[in-house]
Design a protein that fits this description.
Shape: extended
Number of helices: 6
Largest sheet: 4 strands, antiparallel
Distance between the termini: 27 Å
Radius of gyration: 20 Å
Order of helices and strands: HHHHHEEEHE
Number of strands: 4
Amino acid sequence: TAWRDILDYDWSLLLGADDCLAYINHCYQLEFAREALAGLLAFADAADDAELQGAIAGEAQPEPVQEAAMLDAEPGTWSCRVCQSAGPHKDDFCSFCSTYRLDTAVWRCQGSTSPPPGAAKPRAAAQPCRRVMRMLEVPFGVPCCR
């Protein structure tokens, strides 16, 4: 792949001791992390075509979530296992990253649904999706529910 070639190339003649990824991030104002790219490349090597296409398309699956019963913390005071936010949270989904408190692979989509056909102002008519979705089990990225 192109990323593997970029990461494996000897850039010392052009960049000296500087890291090529730091150079790419600076020039293009990006934030690629070597660990995330390594995870992406490992997944691409091990995945079959359907898994790879699903990850690229960002396909997530709707997830039924029951209200948590008999939890050890008061509503709104629990600590998110993904972003470490202590809240306040309105329900069992983190108010900051939308991750479900009992399963870090489940999140509430914050994207917008399409406006109804014939809406006069499509942007104003768009509604938050808020579907509960299960993420794909890949070591990178955040899938979309649409």
